[in-house]
Amino acid sequence: MKESAVSALKKKGWNVIESDLYALKFNPVASRDDITGKPTDPDHFKYSAETAQAWKEGRLAKDIVEEQKKLEKADLVIFQFPVYWFGMPAIMKGWLDRVLTLGFAYTFQTMFSEGLFKNKKALLSFTTGGPQSMYTPSGTNGDMNVILWPIQNGILNFCGFKVLEPQILYAVAHVPQEARVGMLKSWEKRLETIWDENPVKFLPLQDFEGFSGGFVLKKEVEESLSESKYAPTVGQHLGKPLPPDSQVKAECSKL
């Protein structure tokens, strides 16, 4: 999947930067070693505050800085991984923990639709062990839309990324070789026009109260959504049925 993406994007004239986390032996563990020099409060070390200050002062660990430079250059970020225990492998989660530092990737004044990465796009491209039927509202693993919400909303949308439809390859180890070849060709075909795609839908930050209001939906917004059959999102469900495929299909793709 990764090799196909690199090849397809380069054919379309993209400059591609890769981060093979295993080849880099990337350290996934957030710790005091992520800053150089003395902490601002050595007796009560707060990771987010210390790394934010270190980012401002150029004191972050070298491997974090190198990955942040790649992100700064990126218009589109593709996260390629196999699903482990309903999420990302530890090494990729650790990359997110360490690289998306306060100040660089987000602030509490610039988040979600107003996030620092609002001019960038991102998508998850991943493989599963089980077939698609397992990841449905009636499947044993449950609705894939629910599984995706913490990553797509809680990480990518939180930082401002425009989140494109995920590229999901189900049960790749259990299908014939010709099926896998077809999956790769479909992925390559999609990448030819990837930049033109619309993102999946999230509610904009202005629909919510701010700090003083507890970051909940404004009353007038909630009232405007009251007549809808479905919830506005997976997370802000308002006690209603979840919107079908809201995390796996762009808004304009829905029937």
TrEMBL record:
Keyword Protein biosynthesis appears in the UniProt entry: no
UniProt keyword list: Oxidoreductase
Chain spans, region Disordered: 235-255
InterPro entries cross-referenced by the UniProt entry: Flavodoxin_fold, Flavoprotein-like_sf, NAD(P)H_dehydrogenase_qn
Domain Flavodoxin-like fold intervals: 3-191
Classification via Pfam families: Flavodoxin_2
Top-level division of the source organism's lineage: Eukaryota
PANTHER family: NAD P H OXIDOREDUCTASE-RELATED, NAD(P)H DEHYDROGENASE [QUINONE] 1 ISOFORM 1
Family to which this protein belongs: Belongs to the NAD(P)H dehydrogenase (quinone) family.
Name assigned to this protein: Flavodoxin-like fold domain-containing protein
